[in-house]
Amino acid sequence: MNTILSGEHIVKSFGDGAERRNVLDGVSVEIRKGEFVSIMGPSGSGKSTLLYALSGMDRVDGGRILFEGRDLSGLRDDDLADLRRRRMGFVFQQPTLLGNLDLLDNIILPAVRDERRGLGRHVEKARDLMRRTGIEGLERRSVSQVSGGQLQRAGICRALLRDPAVLFGDEPTGALNSASAREILDILSEVNAAGTAVLLVTHDAAVAARAGRVLFLRDGRIDRELELGPPDGQGLEERTGRVSRTMRELGI
Amino acid sequence: MYARIIRNDIRRSRLASLATVLFVMVSALLVSLAGALGAELSAALETLMERAATPHLLQMHSGPIDLERLESFAAGSSELEGFQVLEFLNVEGAAFEFGDRTLAGSVQDNGLSIQGRDFDFLLDLDGNVANPREGELYVPVFYFKDGTARAGDRVRILGREFRVAGFVRDSQMNSALSSSKRFLVSPEDYATLRDRGSVEHLIEFRLRDPGALGNLEAAYVAAGLESNGPRVGFPLFRMMNALSDGLLIVVLLFVGLLVTFVSLLCVRFALLAKIEQDYREIGAMKAVGLRVSDIRRAYLAKYAVLAVPGALFGWALSFAFRGPLLANLRLFMGEGGASRLAPALGLAGALLVGLLVLGYVRGVLGRFRKISAAEALRFGAPRQAARRPGRLRLAAGLPLGANAALGFLDVLARIPLYGTMLAVLVASSFIAVVPRNLHTTVASPSFSSYLGIGACDLRADVQAVGDIPGRASEIASALAADPEVRKTVVLTARAFTVRGKDGSESSLKVELGDHAVFPVAYAEGRAPGAPDEIALSVLSAEDLGTRVGDRLAAAVDGEWRDLRVAGLYSDVTNGGKTAKAAFSGGEAPVLWAVVQAGLADPSRSREKAAAYAAAFPYAKVSSLQEYVAQTFGPTIRAVGSASRISLGVALVLAALITALFVRMLVARDRVSIAALRALGFRNSDLTRQYLARSALVAGIGVLAGSLLANTLGESLVGALISLFGAASFEFAADPLSAYILIPLAVALAALAATAAGAAGAGRIGIAQTIRE
């Protein structure tokens, strides 16, 4: 059994009465261990909604979601929280770091609840991640003292602290300049190469091209799936071209 | 246009609006109650003392009296409007029989009297001059209040039966603080019983101009007229009548002003949050050319809509509370015809609170001027850069767990923000602790030492009997032989002629004995120890124009002795003009004697007092506890209910403001909350973090509040108490309630409110919030 995360016939609706509409209208997806998958689609197609549903941050109205074999709809809020903390990592468009903590404290945040005594191990891990992502030496800086790119790197360190099975990203490079964006994507590719599954929402073909597989959403359903082959870092331009062509075909 | 904006705005921030209305209402309620009660008290007091024609000067005197000499003194004084001598027949408490009860345990000097001839009338409960027929008795209203007697009861006094025809208000001796109580009987009954007790004379004067009291008193003393007993002036009667209800009014006003202060904090708080929220809109309004005053008017209008009805509600509500709070005042002083003035004054107080709030809002809105339209439109409200907490870091270890650490870190990072909540909790603890301390102080036996009564457990007063010194030493020997008695002392009072600074001579009553055994509280200096030392009551010192360290000449056994003033103390006993010294009295006649005793087990003082009272019927034996309970009872009860009201107000205040504050924090921190939830923090973790923040702020707040209450509060109350004649005041606080129970209750109220307010954190949707 190679699947780590799957959604079957997911339905999620917003609004009331006559205004009610299905943002996800029976979507089924499957993410394998160590896979890198991108989700694309026009605004309002339900990309982010799908991401939040699959990570258990949002409850769905129909269908079911299995994470490592467990049905998320059957779990209580606390169990979902525990699962997110121990097995998932998140990188958002805005870094969402806490303003009253320095970068190091922000990065070890997912560990502090469970580790009163053994925190030292996580502090070491955090320093190592900071070195690998190029923000060494910024441990004691506050959130307002570093650049957007550095904040996003800290956000990635925070997401990776507990070796998640899946790393979820919602437009992680959306707020960055192109040089910073490229560096962040290189880091995500490295993470994936080391065995972590990555699920990324983006509207940028160059970002989506980093994945092995791209899902195109439209009106709450998967319109097309594009297999790009193993993301080995080779032929990025060609892969980006294929993604862009598919986008044009679908009118995205 | 405003109406709709205001309606929507209030609907959107229901809780904050409700709190604003509520606080304005409570402050208006308290301030208008204080105002109305003040008006009622002053009017009722005025009416009572006018109808009763209270004497401007009263000289009590026991012993032989030369009426002719007094009459010629009165006839020779052009300032006098009236002069009369009334009799007060001192009857021992055991001779008053109300069914199977007697007044044996009473610390009051109870006696019979007939109605005043020209003035000093005892009034019935309808405010009319009471005129008992033969066999009828009018009982002091004091004994109606404590349930001793009811109209129609049969009462036996000195074996003669009376029917209680009604109750009387005595403008001189109404108050429990006044030590005598006059029962009114018909002249015929009085004549029959006159030989059965000891007669004391009330030598009374009414002045055309009450301001001439000082001259009259000086002339009386200079004439060397009868003065074996306390001399009391009009102002002291007034003060004694006003004290109990006056204290209640002061506490109400005090709490009302503090609540007003908290209302202002609350308004500031809601307003700053609102300005932050509306920053762009304000910028837009400025950009399209609206004047600052126009924008300000829109916000001000909203608060006017909240504050004015709040103040009016508070005023209206004050009518409901007025009844119970006025009950005591009405009983003792009657209706003063202030019913029209009181609501007006109450309304003025309430509107003043409302206007104060609006004025404050106007001031806070002044910051609109500083908002740059361009910046507001582009960037919204300026983000306050979070301050880095110094050495505290999560990575350094979590001795109290992650949630506590995160909570504390947040407080340290945003100290100005939490300052408001801190101020409220400091104020709440202050409001709760100060009246409570005042209550325990007034109720404690040591309080009497501020008023000139030594802090012993047991005292026996020997007065108006033959051979006072012999009888006093008889009691003292019995006490000295009692194994339960730790120490005793006999104080004998004698009158001496003293010479003031200006050379004028006057008579001064001096209590002689060892004053270090059961000391009173000295406002200045200390107890007299050496034979050439004397301590004066504050009023005596004022009369004589002396201060601590000054010399005073006194005639002892016919020769002048040079005494040094060693200390000053406050005194409400014996007309307030007394002195204490340690020299032996020589031949001067003894006016009264007091035997004081300290018990090994002070809780036995009531039983011991009863036993000694039975053994020595000629003495008035009382336990100090009992004496304080009876003398200050009404005052203690008034302060007690005020302190309970304050505690309630403080707890509601702490809880409500904290709940509001936490809700505001949750709204402000929603992105961080969503991030923490996304990272896998449970809802209970978030609640714990908020509890940790509140615990830190509440801990510091109640600690600071109770410390302030016990220092600043003490000085404040001391200043207040000194208005009533007691000096050098210190709280006799109950440490358990002042430092532990009440602060704990305030802190728990804040924590409970935090738990309720933080519940909203778990309902913040992660997906929607993070994607905003």
Task: Give short descriptive properties of this protein.
A: 252 residues, alpha/beta, 8 helices, 10 strands, 36% helix, globular, B: 772 residues, alpha+beta, twelve-stranded mixed sheet, six-stranded mixed β-barrel, 22 helices, 22 strands
Give me the secondary-structure topology.
The complex is a heterodimer of chains A (252) and B (772).
Chain A lengths: L2 E12 L6 E12 L3 E5 L6 H8 L7 E6 L2 E2 L5 H11 E4 L11 H10 L6 H14 L15 H13 L5 E5 L7 H16 L3 E5 L3 H4 L4 E6 L2 E7 L8 H15 L2
Parallel strand pairs in A: 3-8, 3-9, 6-7, 7-8
Antiparallel strand pairs in A: 1-2, 1-4, 4-5, 9-10
Helix pairs in contact in A: 3-4, 3-5, 5-6
Chain B lengths: L1 H11 L1 H38 L5 E6 L4 H9 L4 E11 L5 E3 L2 E2 L6 E5 L8 E3 L11 E5 H5 L8 E4 L2 E11 L9 E6 L1 H7 L4 E10 L5 H10 L8 E3 H44 L1 H9 L4 H42 L7 H24 L8 H7 L22 H12 L1 H29 L14 E6 L4 H13 L4 E15 L5 E8 L9 E4 L7 E5 H7 L6 E6 L2 E11 L9 E3 L8 E10 L5 H11 L4 E4 H8 L1 H36 L1 H9 L4 H41 L11 H24 L7 H6 L1
Parallel strand pairs in B: 5-10, 7-9, 15-20, 17-19
Antiparallel strand pairs in B: 1-11, 1-12, 2-5, 2-11, 3-4, 3-8, 6-9, 7-10, 8-9, 13-21, 13-22, 14-15, 14-18, 14-21, 16-19, 17-20, 18-19
Helix pairs in contact in B: 1-9, 2-7, 2-9, 2-10, 2-18, 7-10, 7-13, 7-18, 8-11, 9-10, 12-20, 13-18, 13-20, 13-21, 17-18, 18-21, 20-21
Task: Please provide a written account of the structure.
The complex is a heterodimer of chains A (252) and B (772). With 252 residues, chain A is of the alpha/beta class. The two termini of chain A are 34 Å apart. Chain A contains 8 helices and 10 strands. In chain A, helix 3 runs parallel beside helix 5 (148-160). In chain A, the strands form 2 sheets. A 6-stranded mixed beta sheet of chain A has the order 6-7-8-3-9-10, with helices on both faces. In chain B, the strands form 2 sheets. In chain B, strands 1, 2, 3, 4, 5, 6, 7, 8, 9, 10, 11 and 12 form a 12-stranded mixed beta sheet that branches. The model of chain B has no long low-confidence stretch (mean pLDDT 84). Chain B has 772 residues and is α+β, with helices and mostly antiparallel strands. The A-B interface holds A 48-49, 52, 57-58, 77-78, 81-86, 88, 90, 92, 94, 96-102, 104-105, 108-110, 112-113, 116, 119, 123, 126, 139, 142-144, 158, 170 and B 385-386, 388-389, 393-395, 397-398, 401-403, 405-406, 409-410, 412-414, 671-672, 674-685, 762, 765-767, 770-771.
